[in-house]
Amino acid sequence: MSKVVVESPNKKLNATIDAGELVSFICNSEEIMHQKGNPGWRNVDTEMFPIIGATSPNNFKVSTPRGTCIQDQHGLLRELKYDLIDQTKNSLTFRKTYLKNTAVKNSKFPDKSTEKIVSWPYNFEFIKNFELTNETLKVSFIVNAEKGMPYMLGYHPAFKLNGGKKEIVITESFEISIDDILNIGASAFPVLNTQMIHLIKDSNLNVKIDLKGFENFMLWTEVDNMLCMEPITYYPNASSDCLTVEMFNAANGQEKFEVCITPYS
């Protein structure tokens, strides 16, 4: 079986990971994450790399210093399989590796894309680690890439809502309602220059997310029972131009990112 359960030292928290995907995070017997099969989204978490956002306006073409390649929405990382490389009672570590210019089948083809094959002109290794402390689930990422490789990175977890649109998202500066997010639609609601966010529920546990490495969030849902609160390096709709150079980070060899998810009452 691909599912593995890890727990916090005090046994207050447990998380279930299925082939590198967080499919359950429970605090004191309460489920925090959206569940597969429920309305809203078919997954619970995934990553967006080396692209965030749509590529169809560019005819799926992405320009890099090594030429033009074909990428579909949110990048090819999600088409690769994770290998479990380390495991303890409180943590799991997974890895994906990619050899430059390797052709990868696009799972969106033919129903949602015209492109059968995607590729990227750089080598990279992508490591995802889950670690439970007594209070927090820490999800961290290490990107080992060729120096100068352009990339965007986003983490895409989906959280359970009670329904009824009574929850709010708060930052240090403002509040966002579920209706605000629904009204934005597929573009997702931008929360920029922010490294901490709270999901406040009318009942059940609230959720705080703290970031390291990421500088922004975007919020997305099309239903009232689920909310994706997504740490991102860049909000892809912040510019009227598609996939401009300014949207990308440049790899320095090894990049580290961290997302801490803390339930609280």
Automatic annotation (TrEMBL):
It comes from the Bacteria. Its cofactor is Ca(2+). SUPFAM superfamilies: Galactose mutarotase-like. Pfam families: Aldose_epim (PF01263). Keywords: Calcium. InterPro entries: Aldose_1/G6P_1-epimerase (IPR008183), Gal_mutarotase_sf_dom (IPR011013), GH-type_carb-bd (IPR014718). Monomer. This is Aldose 1-epimerase. The keyword Lyase does not apply.
